[in-house]
Design brief:
3-stranded antiparallel sheet, 20 helices, 18% strand, globular, F-box domain-containing protein
C-alpha cells in the first residue's frame, strides 16, 4: 500500500511539523494551520486540544521557558495549560504587528508583552522583533500617550495601558536606537515623558505608599488634598492576567521610574559643555587653590556616567546571569501568585550584591520657583520646562542581619520614614566588620554584617544552574551605607548615605547628609527608588520633610554601577 499523509503515524507527523516550523522561528507557525486544514484526520491529530505535546514543543521553539522557582509557577511548568499561553502570546504578537494602537484588547496585549520581556532570554525578543514592537511603541507614545490629557488639565493620565506602555518602551530601549532618533523625535519623547518624570505630586515612583515599611491591606491610609487632588493619587494598582491558564493578580509597574530612565537616556546624548575657565586637572586645581570640578572631571562624566540598558553587557557580574534573572526583582513586584511560595527569606527577591559597589550617574534638579508653580497650579505647563543635569557619585555597601541576630525594629504608621526607615534616635557605629545600631536609652541593639560568600554566590549560581544553596538563606534585613569617594567629592561635593531596603518590593530609601559639617546648609535629603533590571538605581530625592505630604520640591536621579569596580 503506498504511503499517504492520512496513514502517517501521529509521532512522525509531529516530527515533520516541528522540522517545518523550525525553518521559520519567528511569528505564529502558519504551516501548522495549513496542515490542519488538509483533512479531518490531520486536524484532529495536530489540534492543540488533543496534542499537548505538540503545543509544548511549539512553545519551546518560539518562547523562553519560564523558571518554575523564579516565575511564580507553583510546581513544574503546567503542560496542559501551555496551549492557553501559546494562543494568548500569538494573539498579542499579531495585534502588535497589525499596528492598531486603538485595539480594544490593547491592555491584554501589553500585559502579555511586558511579561514576555521580563522572561526574555533571547527567544521572546525574537518574537517581539517579528511583531515590530519598537515601531509600534514609538507610534503609541506619539499618538496615544496623551489621550485624556485635554480633560485632565493637560496632564497625561496614569492608566493601566500607559503604565505598561512606558515600561515596555524603556525595556525595549537600546543605545543604538536612541542614537538613531532624529533630534525632533528625541525632543518629542522628552516632552511626552517629562510630566511623568518630574511631577512627583501626580505620579509617584513607588508600588505603594513610600512611607510604609511593612505595607498591608490593614495599613492606615494617609491622604491629603491639593490643587492636584488626592495624594497619594488614586491610580490603577493591579489587574488580573491569565498566566498559563490560571488567573493571577498582576501589580502594574509604577510608570515614573521607567519614564525617568527613558528621559535620562535621551538627555545623555547631549554631553555637558566644558567651561573654558576650568582648570585642566585636579593637580592644577590643587596647586592654585581652586575648588570644584576640572575639565577632566567633566570629560570623565560625559564618557562614563550614562544610563545602562536592560539587554546590554557592561562587564559586571550580572552579565553572568540569564537576562531574565536580572529582571527577577521587577517580576516579583508585578506577579503575585497566591499558590507560589518563595524559597528566599527576603520577600522582595532582592539579589544580594546588586547595590554594593561604585555607582555613578546624574540628577536633574528643577528650579525651585518652577517646581512651586507646577505644584500650586492645577494645569500642566506647556511647553514643559527643561532642566540641567548634575553629576552624582556614591560607593555603596550592603550589610545584612543574619539569624540569630534580631533586625532593627520597625516604626509603625509611617514614623521613621524621614530617617530612611531607621528607628528615630538610634545611633550607629560602622567598622569594616559591619554596623552596630543602638536604640535610644539602649532600648535595643542590632548588628549587621557584610554578606556571606555563600549568600552572594548562591543567587548567582541559581541563575546558571537552578539550585540555591541552603546556607545562602537566612538574611532578615538589608541596610545600605554609602559615601562619596574623595576624588569625586573634591569636584562635586561629598556625602554619606544610610538607609534600608523595604522587603515587600525592594524599595531603597536612603538618608543623605554632607560629609563636611560646615556644609550643613546643604541639608539632609531622602533618596527613594528601585534598581530596575539590576542595572540602574532610579528614583527621586527630596529634602527631609513630612513623608506623607507631597514634596515641595523633588529632583530625579539615575545611577548605574561602574563596571570597572563591579567586575573586580
Amino acid at each position: 500500500m503506498p504511503a499517504s499523509f492520512i496513514t502517517t503515524p501521529t509521532e512522525l507527523l509531529e516530527k515533520i511539523v516541528l522540522l517545518a516550523v523550525h525553518q521559520r522561528r519567528q511569528g505564529p507557525p502558519s504551516i501548522l494551520r495549513s496542515l490542519r486544514l488538509t483533512c479531518r484526520m490531520s486536524n484532529n491529530a495536530l489540534s492543540p486540544e488533543s496534542n499537548s505535546y505538540l503545543s509544548f514543543m511549539l512553545f519551546v521553539d518560539r518562547f523562553d521557558i519560564p523558571s518554575p522557582r523564579r516565575h511564580s509557577l507553583s510546581s513544574q511548568l503546567p503542560v496542559d495549560n501551555i496551549e492557553c499561553e501559546l494562543r494568548k502570546r500569538f494573539r498579542a504578537l499579531q495585534r502588535i504587528r497589525r499596528g492598531d494602537i486603538a485595539d480594544p484588547d490593547i491592555l491584554e496585549s501589553l500585559s502579555t508583552i511586558y511579561i514576555m520581556m521580563l522572561e526574555d532570554d533571547g527567544r521572546n525578543w525574537d518574537q517581539l522583533i517579528w511583531a515590530e514592537l519598537p515601531s509600534f511603541m514609538r507610534r503609541f507614545l506619539r499618538e496615544r500617550l496623551m489621550m485624556g490629557a485635554e480633560t485632565n488639565n493637560g496632564w497625561p493620565t496614569e492608566n493601566e495601558v500607559n503604565m505598561l506602555a512606558v515600561s515596555i518602551f524603556w525595556l525595549m530601549s537600546r543605545s543604538e536606537s536612541i542614537r538613531n532618533e532624529t533630534d525632533d523625535l528625541r525632543s518629542k519623547f522628552l516632552e511626552l515623558l517629562s510630566p511623568y518624570a518630574f511631577a512627583g505630586f501626580r505620579y509617584p515612583c513607588f508600588t505603594g505608599p513610600e512611607y510604609d515599611f511593612c505595607p498591608s491591606e490593614n495599613s492606615p491610609k494617609y491622604v491629603v488634598t491639593s490643587v492636584h487632588g488626592a495624594y497619594p493619587p488614586v491610580r490603577p494598582v493591579s489587574i488580573t492576567v491569565d498566566y498559563f491558564g490560571r488567573p493571577v493578580p498582576f501589580d502594574l509597574p509604577p510608570l515614573a521610574p521607567y519614564a525617568i530612565l527613558a528621559h535620562f537616556s535621551r538627555l545623555e546624548t547631549r554631553p555637558l559643555m566644558i567651561p573654558p575657565h576650568l582648570p585642566e586637572t585636579r593637580a592644577e586645581a590643587t596647586v592654585n587653590g581652586i575648588s570644584g570640578p576640572t575639565k577632566e572631571d567633566v570629560t570623565y562624566f560625559n564618557a562614563h556616567c550614562k544610563t545602562h540598558f536592560p539587554g546590554t553587557a557592561y562587564g559586571n557580574r550580572f552579565d553572568t546571569l540569564l537576562k531574565s534573572r536580572r529582571h527577577d526583582p521587577d517580576w516579583t513586584r508585578s506577579i503575585r501568585d497566591p499558590l507560589y511560595r518563595s524559597p528566599s527569606s527576603l520577600p522582595g527577591q532582592y539579589i544580594p550584591g546588586t547595590i554594593a559597589g561604585r555607582w555613578q550617574g546624574s540628577f536633574i534638579a528643577p528650579y525651585h520657583n518652577t517646581y512651586e508653580t507646577m505644584l500650586s497650579s492645577p494645569s500642566a505647563p506647556s511647553p514643559f520646562p527643561m532642566f540641567g543635569r548634575f553629576p552624582l557619585y556614591v560607593t555603596f555597601k550592603e550589610l545584612y542581619c543574619y539569624s540569630p541576630c534580631i533586625p532593627l525594629p520597625v516604626n509603625e504608621n509611617g514614623a521613621g520614614f524621614e530617617n530612611a526607615f531607621l528607628p528615630i534616635g538610634c545611633q550607629w557605629h560602622e567598622t569594616e566588620a559591619g554596623v552596630e545600631f543602638t536604640g535610644r536609652n539602649t532600648s535595643f541593639k542590632a548588628y549587621y554584617s557584610p554578606p556571606r560568600k555563600e549568600h552572594l554566590d548562591g543567587d548567582f549560581i541559581e541563575g546558571a544552574h537552578g539550585e540555591l544553596k541552603p546556607s545562602a538563606l537566612g538574611p532578615f534585613d538589608v541596610i545600605i551605607t554609602g559615601v562619596t569617594e574623595e576624588r569625586y567629592a573634591a569636584a562635586w561635593g561629598g556625602y554619606r548615605y544610610m538607609g534600608r531596603i523595604r522587603p515587600s518590593d525592594g524599595l531603597i530609601v536612603l538618608l543623605r547628609e554632607p560629609l563636611d559639617p560646615q556644609m550643613v546648609e546643604l541639608g539632609r535629603a531622602l533618596f527613594r527608588g528601585y534598581i530596575i533590571s539590576s542595572r540602574n538605581f532610579v528614583g527621586r530625592w527630596r529634602y527631609v520633610a513630612d513623608g506623607i505630604q507631597p514634596a515641595e520640591w523633588e529632583s530625579i536621579f539615575s545611577l548605574c554601577k561602574d563596571a570597572a569596580m563591579s567586575s573586580e
